[in-house]
Amino acid sequence: MNRRSFLQTSVYVPAGLFLTGNGLAQALGLLSPGNVVKLRCLGNIEGPRFLDGHTANGTVGLAPNSHPPYTGTSWQLMDAGQGAIALRCLGDIEGRRFLDGHTADGTVGLAPNTHPPYTGTRWQVMEAGQGAVALRCLGDIEGRRFLDGHTADGAVGLAPNTHPPYTGTRWAVF
Questions:
Q1: What distance in Å separates the CA atoms of residue 51 and residue 69, rounded to the nearest whole number?
Q2: H or E element in which residue 173 lies
Q3: Under CATH, which architecture does the 3-173 domain have?
Q4: What angle do CA 65, 37, 152 make, to 5 degrees?
Q5: Under 8 Å CB-to-CB from 156, ≥6 apart: which residues?
Q6: For every one of its 174 residues, what pLDDT tens digit does the chain have, with 9 covering 90 and above?
Q7: Which of 28, 147, 167, 169 lies 20 to 30 Å (CA to CA) from residue 45?
Q8: Taking a C-beta distance cutoff of 8 angstroms, is the pair 124, 134 a contact?
Q9: What is the reported pTM?
Q10: Cβ 169 vs Cβ 148: under 8 Å
């Protein structure tokens, strides 16, 4: 099946279906290298929700849906070693591709590759309860760590934890 027909026939599957029993192990099985996923922010404020990489300028935001022109909402999972993943944006425009958390200042962008100095391109998938996952940045510099969607304004950053008021740190995967 080609990428286009996969994306056209993909069905929303709540991450909770895969997070029963040994939830983290099952999530890592679902989130295995090579798979293409979409991430929907579960923040409690209405607004855009889909993680969207802007490959032309290396930024990341939230899109209102995952259909064109929001081609940066598809992410290919890659093995980043030691149980970590990297997320490669599949946007149509050439440019930076790898989700990169900047732990020193709490921002998020796209990096051109996953090699140093881009240590924020490695992510740990964590169970976040009620069928959600959290993505913890494994960057070398201490600071904020959890991918946090700001549904009120469509921005994305890093939060210090996954507790309220950081409701945008919970993500549905499909």
A1: 13
A2: strand 171-173
A3: Trefoil (2.80)
A4: 35
A5: 51, 60, 61, 62, 108, 147, 148, 149, 150
A6: 333 332 332 333 333 333 333 444 445 456 778 899 999 999 999 999 999 999 999 999 999 999 999 999 999 999 999 999 999 999 999 999 999 999 999 999 999 999 999 999 999 999 998 888 999 999 999 999 999 999 999 999 999 999 999 999 999 998
A7: 28
A8: no
A9: 0.84
A10: yes
Domain range annotation of the chain = 3-173
Structure tokens at 56: 């032309």
Report DSSP state, residue 99. E
Residue corresponding to tokens 């760590």: 145
Cα–Cα nearest to 170, from 124, 139, 129, 111: 129
Q: Which amino acid is at 39?
A: L
Rounded Cα distance, 73 and 83, in Å = 23
Give the E-state strand segments of 4-131 in sequence order: 36-37, 39-41, 50-54, 59-63, 75-81, 84-89, 98-102, 107-111, 123-129
Rounded Cα–Cα distance for residues 119 and 111 (Å): 10
